[in-house]
Amino acid sequence: MNPADLPGEVAVVVPAAGSGSRLGGHRKQFRELGGRPVIVQTLLVFERHPEVHHIVVAAPEDAVKPLQQEFRRVGITKLERVVAGGSTRQESVFRALAALPPLVDVVLVHDAVRPFVRVSQVSDVIGAAREYGAAAPAIPVTDTVRRSGDGFFGDTVDRSGLQRMQTPQGFRRSLLLEAHRLASEGGLDATDDVGLAQHAGAPVRVVDGSSDNVKITNPDDWERATDFWPMWEKVLRLESGARGVVLRGEGGA
After folding, report:
1. In 3D, which of 54, 105, 96, 83 has the Cα closest to residue 180?
2. Would the pTM count as exceeding 0.85?
């Protein structure tokens, strides 16, 4: 096979420069979950994934060096670099993109505080991004949705076709860079990278998400995450056992 026909490498960009103000107190991405900071638990998912080659984290400026040292210490061998993030999530992702190695073809953008993503979901997003150029996991909205104003409910919103977005969101590198460029020129500040891709005119493939893949945002999320962690460790052991992988912190690793 011609080397030019081989699939390019996969990198994960993790924006983690936020203040975590909605959770209160210590930045949520650095709180301990299962004996490690949440962001470490999140990165370990991609460290164990056989299709992921590089990880770049965008962190608060004062945490860049300590985090880089900590990630190396706990065995994140795929860490490419920790960069200083920007004032917005979008700016942090853009700065992280600039640190990617040249052979990267597919970029995943993943929330630092989504540690409950399955390896199979990551694989699905990578495959769909390679095939369609852009893909993201989501789950259908099942609750009744209504508008509100002045303390009272208004119209009921038709929920058919509505999706709750998750990460990782995957893109061909060239597409994502162009989407960020167009957003910057047009002054667009989107809540996620799918919004940027759509603004650039790129269709984004829907990948099945999971109700487990929650984003830890507020105190209720944190309570549910800590309650769920023992069950999640069993999931990790099953997934790792199926792939012959030793979880770090076990078996002398």
Report:
1. 96
2. yes
